[in-house]
Specification:
Low-confidence stretches: 137-145
Order of helices and strands: EHEEEHEHHEHH
Mean pLDDT: 82
Largest sheet: 6 strands, mixed
Number of strands: 6
Radius of gyration: 16 Å
Number of helices: 6
Length: 145
């Protein structure tokens, strides 16, 4: 069985999640970052897993575009979906539902909310200011890192 994990990651958290996930799967697994290959071919894969992060309140545009272009083919494959975000509970579920269409969520065999992290050292000045403003504890993380 061949599985493709497709993801997009700003600072590396979603990439780490995709890598950890790939190590848990049996069979041949390939990872593709949509930053490097924007529209990979799905024909050679039995299953596809798609992951995104939430960045500035929304899923990565590369993932949204990929989903829009490939939804019919994705509905013919074994499908898994995951999201890395900083929220829990209803807010995380809402972000998941906004990212993935109802059709994809219903077709998916497995869905995951993997949490997130602030990698202050990888953020530019504006990103650090926004994080410090939105998340009160993030200032502590900025000092700690």
């Amino acid at each position: 069985m061949k599985t493709l994990i497709i993801y997009s990651s700003s600072h590396g958290t979603t990439e780490k999640a995709a890598q950890i996930l790939s190590e848990q799967l049996q069979g041949e697994v390939e990872l593709i970052n949509l930053k490097r290959l924007s529209n990979p071919k799905l024909t050679n894969y039995d299953s596809v897993i798609i992951g995104s992060s939430i960045y500035a309140g929304s899923a990565k545009s590369r993932v949204k575009q990929f989903l829009k272009q490939n939804q019919p083919e994705l509905l013919s494959k074994g499908l898994g979906l995951f999201l890395c975000c900083m929220f829990e509970g209803d807010k995380a579920l809402s972000q998941f539902e906004t990212t993935y269409s109802k059709e994809l969520r219903n077709h998916s065999r497995a869905n995951g909310l993997f949490g997130g992290e602030f990698l202050i050292s990888k953020m530019n000045f504006l990103e650090r200011q926004i994080v410090n403003h939105i998340h009160p504890l993030s200032g502590w993380f900025a000092l700690a890192l």
